[in-house]
Specification:
The complex is a heterodimer of chains A (347) and B (220). By secondary structure, chain A is of the alpha+beta class. Chain A has helices at residues 30-37, 42-50, 64-71, 75-94, 99-128, 133-138, 142-152, 174-208, 210-216, 218-228, 231-236, 239-243, 248-257, 271-274, 281-302, 307-324; strands at residues 2-8, 11-16, 19-25, 55-57. In chain A, helix 5 (99-128) packs antiparallel against helix 8 (174-208) and helix 9 packs antiparallel against helix 15. The mean pLDDT of chain A is 92. In chain B, strand 5, helix 2 (75-83) and strand 6 (88-93) form a beta-alpha-beta unit. Classes of the chains: A alpha+beta (347), B alpha/beta (220).
Chain lengths: 347, 220
């Protein structure tokens, strides 16, 4: 005779022919139930002992109403317990600290901060120009501009060479200078925070992905992590995918319309690719991503230190490429992409 | 009422609020006599879109047990919870971020059970979900059809029905959507008798809602 042992949040049941032949209830503690659902339990072992004459098989969930009747529990009460268990079980997965998730958010935060800084730096330039317009053209760097205002406030306090004395702008009373100084101070703080974000990302990357950080640099490495949505995801990707992470728009254009495929995505930001000669970029990107992918796999799975080897191999290949292809190809190929079939888009 | 539990207000579907006074995703609450209704937004819920587009078969009833794969934040699931007010909706969602909201949205609904799990692995919720009358699936995955078939094997009652939102772009973003959808439905035909299939436009692009009935074991 065949029996199926089924675990529910209420306990372990043995079911044969739709009837319950054994039941060992679980304690009512939610945390204990969560554990028991995913481990072998003494309740199950007790049932197996009782069912010596039966062949134990696996099966699909038995009728819940039958189980509830045996356990003597109403649906409503069962649902309440079940929900507590599912939420506690979810908590065990959600509540785990994972540094790669922190890095992904930090990278995106850094991009948001950069955007915000550009917007408000432009704003303070315009605003301060009511008072001291010449400073805007004199100082190119936003951070420097903001530090100067924070330090000096009114144009009268600036050193002579800035030309505050002969400025065309309006003189501002105390309160009005004060608000600008405060604005500048806030922006300066955000610039400093941006730098803190950078060091956080760098040290977090070195912590969880030492090979990738050493080979590709923590900045590029972090961006790759962010695109892949996690270290394990990144490690599971083929190198060809890593190569174009960040160039999805170009990639889909290639797939759907036959445009030339992108050679690189975020990895373009790495100096080895950014500063390379245009006809060598594709080959360099391919070699780079191959090794970066291996670095990621080592970081995610083996924990071994292989960055030096990878760097050596890459440098060797770089040399090869520059020796083999020193000159641009003779004819500059004009790439014109023709869509395979003309689609009329329905509006 | 178009179907039991689904009201129509000026052509737009609505469900009776299981938790009067509360809305889940900012939807409008309408008092219709003694009954409070929640307006169902077809742009946010594929099932609402299907109903507006003329859905004829609606297997979800008052006492249905429903397995909802891909519940996300629980927008559609909450309406199903309204309709199946004497049944249960088991909401399976994979994304931790969505689950946080799903948890909040199901907190006051005793018949809505949030489960953080991967629908591609039906084993992982074996101890939590019972055999259901309906499996509703809305997962944007390549293996959509196989996910439904695997889950039906575990969790669909013998006379049960399935409702699947097929997203052509998730299966193959390069091929024409009509042919992708046709291929997917033919995968399902082996296990399910197709009762109805309708396009969800203009509310969703290149999506199809397909309703099927589990075939008898001897026929599969």
């Amino acid at each position: 005779m065949k029996a199926h042992i089924y675990k529910s949040v209420l306990g372990a049941f043995a079911v044969a022919d739709g009837k319950i032949i054994a039941f060992e209830p679980f304690p009512s503690d939610v945390e204990k139930i969560v554990k028991k659902l995913f481990e072998d339990t003494p309740e199950e072992k007790r049932i197996i002992k009782k069912l010596k004459k039966y062949e134990i098989i696996s099966g699909t969930p038995p009728d819940l109403d039958v189980l509830l009747k045996k356990a003597g529990i109403a649906r409503d009460e069962y649902n309440k317990l079940l929900k507590k268990v599912t939420i506690a079980s979810a908590g065990t997965k959600i509540g785990i600290f994972r540094r790669d998730k922190m890095i992904i958010q930090a990278v995106e935060a850094r991009e948001d901060v950069e955007e915000a800084l550009n917007i408000i730096s432009e704003r303070i330039r315009e605003w301060y120009s009511l008072h001291f317009p010449e400073l805007d053209s004199a100082v190119y760097d936003h951070e420097e501009f903001v530090e100067l205002i924070k330090k000096h406030g009114s144009k009268d306090n600036f050193p002579e060479e800035f030309g505050g004395e002969s400025s065309l702008g309006a003189d501002l009373p105390g309160d009005d200078i004060a608000i600008l100084k405060q604005f500048a101070s806030q922006i300066a703080d955000i610039y400093r925070f941006r730098d803190k974000l950078d060091s956080y990302i760098e040290s977090a990357m070195e912590d969880i992905a030492p090979n990738l950080s050493l080979f590709a640099g923590s900045a590029v490495g972090a961006k790759l992590l962010s695109q892949a949505k996690g270290l394990e995801n990144l490690a599971k990707m083929p190198a060809s995918r890593l190569q174009i992470l960040g160039a999805q728009k170009a990639m889909f254009k290639h797939i759907k319309k036959g445009a030339p495929p992108p050679k690189h995505g975020v990895i373009f930001q790495h100096p080895a690719i950014k500063t390379a000669k245009w006809w060598q970029r594709g080959k360099i990107a391919r070699s780079f991503s191959g090794k970066a992918a291996i670095a990621a796999k080592a970081d995610a799975f083996s924990g071994k230190y292989i960055a030096d080897e990878l760097k050596r191999g890459f440098k060797k290949r770089l040399k090869e490429i520059s020796e083999k292809y020193p000159e641009a190809p003779q004819k500059m190929r004009i790439i014109r992409y023709t869509p395979e079939k003309k689609k009329r888009r329905k509006k | 009422m178009k179907f039991k539990g689904v009201y129509l207000i000026e052509g737009r579907p609505a469900t009776q609020n299981l938790t009067p006074g509360q809305n889940v995703y900012g939807e409008k609450l309408i008092q219709e006599g003694e009954v409070e209704l929640r307006l169902w937004n077809p742009k946010r819920s594929k099932l609402a879109a299907a109903i507006i587009n003329g859905l004829k078969e609606m297997p979800i009833k008052k006492n249905s047990r429903v397995l909802y794969l891909g519940a996300a934040t629980g927008t559609t699931a909450s309406h199903i919870s309204d309709i199946a007010c004497e049944g249960t909706v088991y909401c399976v969602e994979f994304s931790q971020r969505s689950f946080r909201e799903l948890f909040v949205n199901s907190a006051d609904r005793n018949n809505m059970v949030p489960i953080l799990a991967d629908a591609r692995n039906p084993h992982s919720y074996l101890h939590l979900v019972e055999k259901c009358d309906v499996i509703y699936q809305d997962v944007a995955q390549v293996e959509q059809a196989q996910i439904l078939i695997d889950n039906a094997h575990f969790y669909l009652k013998d006379c049960g029905c399935v409702m699947i939102a097929i997203k052509a772009r998730s299966i193959n973003s390069a091929k024409g959507p009509k042919s992708v959808i046709k291929a997917e439905i033919s995968k399902l035909k082996k296990y399910f008798k197709i009762l109805e299939s309708l396009d969800l436009g203009p509310y969703e692009k290149d999506h199809e809602m397909t309703i099927g009935e589990l075939k008898k074991i001897s026929v599969r």
